[in-house]
Amino acid sequence: MSKAVSMSMGVVEPQERMKHLSHCGNLIEVDKNMPVTRYYRSGTEMLRMANVYLREGNHENAFILYLRYMTLFIEKIRQHPDYGSVKAEVRDINRKIKDEIMPTTEKLRAKLLTHYQREYEQFLASKEAERVRELERDREREKERQRQKERERAGGAGVVPSLIPANLHVLIDEGNQPSAPDLDLLDQVVYPNDFPTGANRSLPGSGLLLPAANEAAADKTANSKPSFDRNQKPSYNRTDSLLAGSLRLVHVPGDTMEVFLKLALANTSKNIETCGVLAGHLSQNQLYITHIITPQQQGTPDSCNTMHEEQIFDVQDQMQLITLGWIHTHPTQTAFLSSVDLHTHCSYQIMMPEALAIVCAPKYNTTGFFILTPHYGLDYIAQCRQSSFHPHPNDPPLFMEAQHIRMDNQAKIKVIDLRR
């Protein structure tokens, strides 16, 4: 339904950032082949997540979702052929948008713009300070080069011999013609009592530095690094932002599969599939599965259809839960997504990109955590008009193992069984 867009790090001006944020909030599409009620439900959960982001102070994400909510119900849902069936509900939503959501969104816009302006000013100030520091480093390097040249000229004028200690004796082999000592070697002769120690290693009256101190100073200058990265831009492209373009982490209680297999045991023994809805909440830009809602359903050995979905919605509204995927059994098969499963999961993933399809295969004691491949499988299945079981191409893959999950062995899953 919506696509994440990563913002270029070259865009730093406040107005441009705001423009891009608004663009991201408008990125929402309506598939005419999806039931219009799904979009109504998706909008409800979108607003629920926007309110969470607002409470947590994540104003960028709140702004994006409020804007998507308004775009969906003011503009895009009217394009759906079944819009008439939810027209009354949408009219009530639009009244809420006018009275509550639009004023909140405009306040967020002003607050974000002020924040972006402050970040941009800090960025420019830091960049200017670094430019000044770099100029100062250039001047120091030039001074050091001049000092080095002076030392070299002083050495050529015969100042170096004054460094030779008076008590140095040179033994001359009588069989060889005496020659002058190698001045380069003499420069390296160091006597502890003759030279000062510590930070000040210059020779009194000579104006010269010892080579060790000279090299250390040069190394320090050469290896010094700017305290500010000149390529740095204002830090708006964060991992906690919907602009990052990555899937949010989904936490799965460690006992989820065990609990679900127990409530599905009666059906499994009859070779009948069982399904449930995974629901939970949003916190700090991460998603937490907390409940399995088991709806009234009709199962076969290779399929399972939910009934009376309005009962699921009522439970979610009462408990402020959002839909995070679904779970079902394959009583006699391995863990994979059949052609029917692919279409079932498509409706979940279009509404919630992080939605999981958990498949439990008790006969093989395996579990699969699947999603449709975001850049191929999701679009392919959304455009497929076949029903029931039918063949799909396997290359490129239509589904994959989910990489955005974390098993939480400390958390316990809760069950709401509507079959009773």
TrEMBL record:
Q: Which residues form a coiled coil?
A: none
Q: Which residues form the MPN domain?
A: 250-378
Q: Name one GO cellular component term.
A: membrane
Region span, Disordered? 131-158, 217-237
Output the SMART domains linked to this UniProt entry. JAB_MPN
GO MF: K63-linked deubiquitinase activity; metal ion binding; metal-dependent deubiquitinase activity
* Regions of compositional bias (Basic and acidic residues) in chain numbering: 131-154
Q: Which terms does the UniProt entry file under GO BP?
A: protein K63-linked deubiquitination; proteolysis
Q: Which UniProt keywords apply?
A: Hydrolase, Metal-binding, Metalloprotease, Protease, Ubl conjugation pathway, Zinc
For activity, the cofactor(s) needed are: Zn(2+)
InterPro entries per the UniProt record, alphabetical = JAMM/MPN+_dom, MPN, STAMBP/STALP-like_MPN, USP8_dimer
Which family does this protein fall into?
Belongs to the peptidase M67C family.
Q: How is this protein named in the record?
A: STAM-binding protein-like A
To which species is this protein native?
Answer: Drosophila rhopaloa (Fruit fly)
